[in-house]
Amino acid sequence: MHAANQYPLHTRSKATSNPLLVKKSGYVYIYTSNESSLNVYFDNLKVKHHKSALMEETHYYSFGLTMAGISSKAAGALSNKKLFNGNEIQNKEFSDGSGLELYDFNARTYDQQTGRFIQIDPTPEDGDQESLTPYHFSGNNPSTFNDPNGKCPWCWGAIIGAAVEYGTQVAGNLVQGKSLGESLTDVNVGNIVIAAGAGALSVGVSAFVPKGAAATVVKEVVVAGIGAAESAAKQYNETGKVSGTKVLTDVAANIVGDKLTKNVKVNSSSTIKTAEKQLDRATKIAANDATSSGRAATVNKLETKVSSMNATNKRVQATSAGAAGNTLQAGADAANSNSTNSKPVAVPAYDPTKQAVDNTAVKTIIPIRF
Amino acid sequence: MKSLFIAGILFFIGPFFFITNSYDKFLVEHNGHLVKMRIEKLPASCIGAKVPYFVTFSYNGETYDKQTRGDFCDKHHVGELIEVKMLEGSKHVLFTNESTLFNLMSCGVLSLFGLVLSITQWKKIRNEK
Question: In terms of CB atoms within 10 Å, which of A128, A188, A352, B106 comes out highest?
Answer without folding.
Answer: A188
